[in-house]
Amino acid sequence: MADAWKMLEEMAPTSLRDLFASEPDRLARLSLDEAGLHFDFSKTHLSRAAIDAFLDLAESTGLAARRDAMFAGGIVNPSEGRAAEHGAERGEGAPESVARSGAFHARMRTLIDAIEAEAFGPVRHILHVGIGGSALGPKLLVDALGRDAGRYDTAIVSNVDGAALEEAVRDFDPHTTLLAIASKTFTTSETMLNARSAITWMAENGVDDPYGRVVALTASPEKAIEFGVDETRILPFSETVGGRYSLWSSIGFPAALALGWDAFESLLEGAAAMDRHFRLAPFDRNAPVLAAFVDRYYANIRKAGTRAVFAYDERLRLLPDYLQQLEMESNGKSVRLDGSPSPRATAAITWGGVGTDAQHAVFQLLHQGTHLVPVEFVAVAEPGDTLDPAHHRQLLVNCFAQGAALMAGRPADDPNRAYPGDRPSTTILAERLDPRTLGALIAFYEHRVFANAALLGINPFDQFGVELGKEMAKALDGGDDLAFDPSTEALIARAFGEDMG
Ligand SMILES: O=P(O)(O)OC[C@H]1O[C@H](O)[C@H](O)[C@@H](O)[C@@H]1O
Fold first, then answer.
1. Ligand 1: which residue has its CA nearest to atom 8?
2. Shortest CA distance to 249 belongs to which of 56, 93, 379, 356?
3. How far apart are CA 493 and CA 308, in angstroms?
4. Which residues on neighbouring strands pair with residue 155, listed in sequence order?
């Protein structure tokens, strides 16, 4: 293992231009098509020798065995003693887990059928409250695919700032609103407060039985019952599905409702196709694994602190937000599986935006700044609009031109006008943006995160780092007699006019 890293560290860096010149088969080897997605890793500094070293690293870190253990329902999250069974949600997992997920999906479908049959009277608005993994996934799905669905107005509210809920319900009729409370644990304070306020909003606006219009999406059904949700309107999912991996479960309820059940199933099928690719393709032709090699190369060998993702498609504008949680909450760790400190940088900071907008805002730094930022372009071949085809053409040519410009650079006598070039990018080009392809794309990212974690020997499935702040906020809110630091004490006094120390 140390040898593979040593080899990588000692390799003389070769420019992208020289790599293309010396490896004539480079484009063919480093691009592949899977599940409606075209991946191009050729504009990265992964030389043939670097890939060989990474393949050795994958071997010595047991990536294949860890992957197989995950799909078999083994305990791949040892700090919490849990399996990670998002694969089972799409039919790829231990048979008993797949059967359990299937039963949960059937229950979800029955409730959706009942809603569509107006068992709750006419439903026009879906108010989904949830945060983190209980919001980002469904929000991405509804925003990317739900534009023309026109079935329901869907609002996904996460922030505890009351302005978010107020804005969401401004144009909603409480009598035709269904409230979905999404929380794996059903204890998250922001979600519980938003849920209570949404119920109050219904009650104050003349809804006789607001609790009769509540659906719970959770892995803790007993807590939902305690909250007052009727058992028949609780859609459970398994404890072994992590929050940021949960859009495939009942957490995807607003998407299944907004897009229709067939679309939701296609989403699962697309993800399953990517699962099979990750399980079966040799690592040198395996998209999530090659992507993880790229990530590790820049984070560990070139010491890049960040990676940037630009969606060249308005429908995917929430993808960077979604990936921030997936990548940074999963792999933003400092210790390895055995508790020892990681000797290497773990997750890079994920950031990004939408093209072409970002070109006119942040790309200056990518082309001429002092930081090396590996860039990822995500685009869709088939247009998502019906306007003059010039729109989509401009969008795509800009995307491709940026990758080419980053790589080629351009010398100039005036240093202000010179582009160093040799800056890396990867491109993912979807044939079209439909539920199946989006499912495959999201599953690709999940497995890439997993492959990164395996190469680093870390656990991508826990997130203890988010707890301390929550505990302190709770203590502060409850007026606990805690002594905070002078700065915090002063902020509390200024905001609340009270001394909590
Ligand atoms: O679904 P919930 O239990 O309400 O959790 C919501 C979110 O909050 C936590 O703090 C975690 O950081 C996230 O991983 C999780 O998705």
1. 132
2. 93
3. 39
4. 127
Structure tokens at 168: 């969401």
Residues 129, 118: Cα–Cα separation, whole Å: 22
Burial group, residue 89, by CB count within 10 angstroms (0-12, 13-18, 19+) = buried
Contact 482, 323 (CB under 8 A): no
Q: How far is the CA of 461 from the centre of ligand 1 (A)?
A: 12
Predicted ipTM beyond 0.90: yes
pLDDT level of residue 498 (50, 70, 90 thresholds): low
pTM: 0.97
Establish whether residue 44 lines the binding site of ligand 1, counting it when its CB lies within 6 angstroms of any ligand atom: no
Bond preceding residue 356 cis, omega within 30 of 0: yes
Q: Is the pLDDT of residue 150 over 80?
A: no
Per-residue model confidence as pLDDT tens digits over 269-304: 999 999 999 999 999 999 999 999 999 999 999 999
Q: Which residues are catalytic?
A: 329, 360, 470
- Ligand 1 pocket check for 183: Cβ under 6 Å: yes
Domains of the chain and CATH, by start: 2-81+274-456 (3.40.50.10490), 86-266 (3.40.50.10490), 468-496 (no CATH)
